[in-house]
Structure to design on (1123 residues):
């Protein structure tokens, strides 16, 4: 090898084994680096990928005391090696230059280990061979994060490992190594130096050696600070003589404090953190900020001569933990001296100052970004309200039938009369202010009046003049919720404020410390999954495990058929297993995606007798339109409450039947007691006697001698028993209470409320408090219906997040402590408004006439985040792509992978699903064995579309699709006898073509694709197994056979339009489970179609696919060539 990545090799420093080498390299600027190379090998590639992702990249470019800094990681395809680039500080292995060992280095390493432990990172390669030291005594631990790999390759120096770690190497079921073992290895490495330099009988030295090197781990140091505090007790002068560094910065203070500041400087030479402010100082206009050591803190100023001025009288003798933990502070690598220096630090701090200003600008851009996000929904709301029907009236009167009301209008425009006709046909209800008036019966433009049919209110409740309006609250509510979410986000008025910076500026915001996963946890988790299918899918299993630990934000990219729902369900089960009262929101832009997850949970509850408590929240409009699956309907709040009330009453009645069977036989007497119990015992004696006179003789005889209610009570007690009567009274009150749980009693109350300590809550809130999982769309969860609930979820799991706009995504995100976004930015993006008036208003509001709408609003928050995380190696362990698809035939899967996923999406291994090809076969005998067919219209009489950009249609393609359907209907004559009949999806990219297909094709003639089922009442229900729709409507769905209509075609060269968007092609093709048929003019697509010159896409994927299919002989002009 001569190069590694972009670095030139100077020499090999260390050959650890045949697969592992350490090199000295340099870049084109002459900077030198050390590089560790690991040869690619299938036996350990996954281990290396995982270690680099989870243990090495999060530490990139971080200054960790006593550890060699990691600069870069990568894979060299030419040499087929993984590589890790480290800083070069001229070090040699400690075992070769032991005379350079020093106690200060031991302490520096201990501090670094302590900081790593705080991030739950422990177990490092600590031994003389793998610790490097230079001639100045600077010492660094090498190969951070590679302990598991060195263990795998038997490269650990076992003589420096604690006894229990040696045992663990031979039996991994024994307790794993921890930080106490790191302390053992560290002291063992330096023990020769310690014993040779200090008196072992010294109390401090003796205690360090004794407590560090105990055979029993439980007898060693229990915390790093105990170990470090003992090291601190060794004389400062000894440490200072050992501490040398090539970059020494001069410290100055006021003359009267020059003697006093020495202790502070000594402390700075151990550890000092600086926080540079983004404003220069008043007066001298110097770079300034705060500093903190382990024992001192104060302010500093950078003089133009390159020294640091510290006003000692303003310093405090304590550590400033808050400053140290600030994400913008940094640990200095300089040495400091009061009298001499060899380094001018002005340029260094000037760069830090520039960086701080850049961060301040980014914070400003964060505010501007949130304003951008909220402007679009705000202007969409305004547009709907402005264009809604409004008409002022000057009088109103009832018509002859008394229930209709006639309104005399004032100056109504022609446009409004047209809209009024639409409203009448749609059965829309008109309002006056918030008062519901009724539907339109009739209207007369010439006479300027409108008649409302069967008004909901009397004429006296309507003012003599006013304004009739179309109620658009349902349409505008979603936009209002988005705007409100943006405002809350900007103010950080959210459940987890940490998320605000990550979401808005992911490029620069560091992720908070999260639970660190070790390799053994990945290995053990294979046996912990509920769904055994995850044992064979590494990325699905790893996505679940990492989502549990990598907080507060984790991204899962789910390509078509890769098992997003499977992962979500497993994740939910694991969360509940770990925390019984966990609160989870399952959300999405669509009802379908929410129901997919809840349906799986329902199946698990039934099959496994699991107790996964979930509730579906939905609007009345959603329920009325039957947009929720039948299997989920019993789990809506309304039905859950209704069923609970019914079941509770039945249980109460059943209890009485079981425990009071004798009394229950006296049905008439029990009913009479029910009547009696409701009477006013002071005033209703006559009512009692009147009822008695009308009762059976049996009752008359019982009560004929009773003179008052006291005697009546005694008779009831004698006949039915006092215990029965007591419980009967409780049952009566309980039933009355249950009857009021849904009855409104004022604005924010129900007739029956529950006491929750100092407050009252309704049954909705109470049931939610007892439920682990809520399912709702990302907009509905913010409904005013739940205004009293105050949602705070431990986890928000949002599916199809790549389809939602940033403002939509913020609605549920604001409610979550931890967020898991699942989507695929290689599929359909958010829908951006087509209304030019809205676009104009947005540009005016933002004062930006050149605003690119697609760029500003066409990118989802999921896509923004995943791109930023991919570009930042320290965040790459917060994303996971599911990399095996289980939906499509392998031929289609390979095509999708090649053109849309850079070859990263795989088909299932035969060893895992041996009959996969059989499962995905279409069952037809084709003249060419294939799962993909391009049915070309190029040789037909007129293959071109109508060239109408507002209503694009292609009649030739419609005819070709008809021929295909006729043939498929014949070939699948036994379709309805299959356990699960095949389905067909016909997808077109243009709404005009979809309308033409629906109007031209009578689906009823394809009898083998019409399923007839009989319901419980004996009625026949027909289900058409063929569906025609747009690409957008098909996302998230799948069909056995997909027919994709390209539509576009012209005689000459022309722009392909939005078919240049490969994401739409990806969605259309990847819906298929068995057979993909593409219909269109192949010659036009391959030879004459061009990309949009002003578009965002530089590759014509659809054209590339068509060329490949032609090369493979899969383009057919006649139907007899196929079947």
């Amino acid at each position: 090898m001569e190069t590694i990545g972009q670095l030139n090799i100077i020499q090999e420093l260390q050959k650890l084994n045949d697969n592992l080498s350490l090199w000295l390299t340099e870049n084109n600027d002459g900077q030198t680096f050390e590089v560790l190379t690991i040869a690619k090998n299938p036996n350990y590639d996954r281990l290396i990928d995982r270690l680099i992702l989870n243990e090495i990249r999060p530490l990139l470019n971080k200054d960790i005391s006593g550890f060699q800094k990691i600069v870069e990681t990568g894979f060299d395809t030419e040499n087929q090696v993984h590589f890790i680039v480290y800083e070069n500080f001229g070090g040699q292995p400690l075992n070769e230059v032991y005379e350079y060992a020093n106690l200060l280095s031991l302490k520096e390493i201990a501090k670094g280990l302590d900081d790593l432990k705080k991030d739950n990172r422990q177990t490092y390669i600590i031994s003389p061979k793998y610790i490097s030291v230079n001639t100045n005594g600077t010492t660094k631990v090498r190969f951070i994060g590679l302990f598991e790999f060195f263990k795998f390759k038997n490269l650990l120096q076992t003589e420096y490992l604690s006894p229990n770690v040696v045992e663990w190497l031979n039996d991994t079921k024994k307790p794993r190594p921890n930080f106490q073992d790191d302390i053992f290895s560290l002291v063992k490495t330096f023990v020769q130096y310690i014993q040779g330099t200090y008196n072992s009988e010294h109390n401090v030295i003796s205690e360090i050696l004794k407590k560090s090197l105990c055979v029993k781990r439980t007898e060693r140091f229990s915390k790093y600070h105990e170990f470090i505090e003992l090291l601190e007790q060794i004389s400062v002068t000894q440490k200072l003589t050992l501490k040398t560094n090539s970059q020494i910065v001069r410290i100055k203070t006021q003359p009267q404090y020059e003697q006093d500041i020495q202790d502070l400087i000594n402390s700075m030479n151990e550890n000092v953190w600086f926080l540079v402010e983004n404003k220069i100082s008043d007066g001298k206009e110097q770079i300034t900020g705060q500093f903190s050591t382990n024992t001192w803190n104060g302010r500093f100023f950078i003089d133009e001569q390159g020294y640091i001025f510290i006003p000692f009288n303003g310093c405090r003798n304590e550590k400033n933990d808050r400053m140290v933990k600030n994400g913008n502070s940094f640990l200095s690598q300089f040495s400091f001296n009061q009298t001499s220096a060899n380094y001018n630090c002005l340029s260094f701090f000037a760069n830090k100052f520039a960086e701080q200003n850049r961060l301040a600008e980014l914070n400003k851009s964060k505010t501007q970004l949130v304003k951008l996000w909220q402007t679009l929904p705000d202007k969409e709301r305004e547009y709907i309200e402005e264009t809604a029907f409004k008409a002022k009236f000057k009088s109103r009167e009832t018509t002859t039938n008394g229930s209709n009301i006639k309104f005399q209008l004032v100056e109504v425009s022609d446009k409004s009369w047209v809209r009024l006709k639409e409203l009448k046909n749609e059965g829309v209800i008109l309002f006056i202010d918030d008062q519901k008036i009724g539907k339109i019966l009739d209207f007369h433009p010439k006479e300027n009046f409108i008649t409302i049919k069967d008004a909901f209110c009397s004429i006296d409740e309507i003012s003599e003049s006013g304004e009739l309006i179309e109620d658009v609250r349902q349409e505008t509510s979603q936009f209002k919720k988005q705007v409100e979410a943006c405002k809350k986000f900007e103010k950080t008025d959210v459940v987890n404020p940490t998320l605000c910076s990550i979401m808005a500026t992911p490029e620069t915001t560091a992720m908070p410390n999260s639970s660190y996963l070790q390799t053994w946890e990945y290995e053990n988790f294979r046996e912990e999954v509920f769904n055994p299918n995850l044992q064979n899918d590494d990325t699905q299993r790893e996505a679940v495990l990492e989502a549990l630990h990598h907080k507060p934000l984790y991204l899962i990219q789910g390509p078509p058929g890769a098992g997003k729902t499977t992962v979500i369900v497993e994740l939910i089960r694991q969360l509940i297993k770990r925390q019984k009262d966990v609160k989870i929101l399952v959300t999405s832009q669509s009802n379908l995606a929410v129901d997919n997850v809840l349906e799986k949970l329902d199946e698990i509850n039934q099959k496994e007798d699991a107790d996964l408590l979930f509730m579906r929240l939905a609007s009345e409009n959603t329920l009325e339109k039957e947009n929720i699956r039948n299997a989920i309907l019993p789990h809506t709040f309304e039905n859950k409450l209704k069923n609970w009330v019914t079941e509770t009453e039945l249980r109460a009645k059943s209890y009485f039947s079981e425990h009071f069977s004798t009394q229950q036989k006296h049905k008439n007497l029990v009913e009479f007691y029910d009547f009696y119990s409701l009477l006013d015992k002071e005033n209703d004696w006559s009512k009692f006697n009147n009822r008695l006179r009308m009762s059976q003789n049996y009752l008359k005889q019982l009560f004929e001698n009773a003179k008052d209610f006291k005697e009546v009570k005694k008779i009831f007690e004698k006949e039915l028993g006092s215990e029965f009567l007591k419980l009967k009274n409780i049952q009566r009150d309980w039933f009355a209470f249950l009857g009021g749980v849904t009855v409104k009693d004022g604005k924010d109350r129900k007739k029956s409320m529950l006491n929750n300590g100092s407050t009252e809550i309704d049954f909705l809130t109470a049931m939610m408090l007892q439920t682990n999982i809520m399912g709702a769309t990302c907009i509905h969860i913010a409904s005013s219906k739940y205004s009293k609930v105050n949602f705070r979820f431990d986890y928000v799991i949002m599916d199809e997040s790549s389809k939602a706009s940033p403002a939509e995504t913020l609605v549920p995100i604001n409610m979550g402590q931890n967020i898991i976004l699942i989507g695929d930015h290689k599929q359909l993006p958010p829908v951006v408004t087509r209304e030019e008036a809205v676009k104009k208003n947005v540009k005016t509001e933002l004062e930006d006439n050149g605003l690119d709408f697609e760029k500003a609003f066409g990118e989802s928050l999921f896509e923004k985040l995943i791109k930023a995380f991919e570009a930042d190696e320290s965040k790459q362990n917060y994303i996971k792509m599911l990399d095996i698809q289980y939906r499509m035939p392998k031929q289609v899967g390979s095509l999708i992978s090649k053109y849309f996923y850079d070859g990263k999406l795989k088909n299932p291994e035969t060893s895992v699903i041996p009959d996969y090809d059989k499962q995905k076969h279409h069952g037809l005998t084709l003249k060419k064995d294939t799962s993909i067919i391009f049915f070309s219209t190029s040789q037909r009489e007129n293959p071109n579309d109508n060239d109408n950009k507002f209503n694009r249609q292609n009649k030739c393609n419609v005819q070709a699709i008809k021929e295909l359907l006729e043939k498929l209907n014949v070939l699948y004559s036994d379709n309805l006898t299959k356990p699960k009949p095949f389905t067909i999806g016909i997808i077109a990219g243009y709404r005009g073509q979809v309308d033409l297909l629906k109007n031209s094709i009578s689906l009823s003639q394809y009898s083998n694709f019409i399923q007839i089922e009989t319901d419980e009442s004996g009625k026949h229900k027909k289900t058409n197994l063929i569906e025609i729709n747009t690409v957008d409507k098909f996302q998230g769905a799948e069909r056995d056979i997909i027919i994709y209509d390209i539509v576009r075609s012209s005689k000459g060269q022309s722009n392909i339009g939005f078919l240049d968007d490969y994401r739409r092609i990806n969605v259309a093709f990847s819906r298929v489970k068995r057979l993909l048929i593409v219909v269109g003019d192949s010659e036009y697509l391959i030879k004459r179609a061009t990309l949009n010159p002003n578009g965002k896409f530089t590759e014509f994927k659809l054209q590339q696919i068509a060329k490949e299919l032609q090369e493979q002989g899969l383009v057919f002009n006649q139907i007899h060539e196929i079947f």
About this structure: DSSP finds 39 helices and 41 strands in the chain. The first helix runs from residue 45 to 56. Residues 236-245 have pLDDT under 50 and may be disordered.
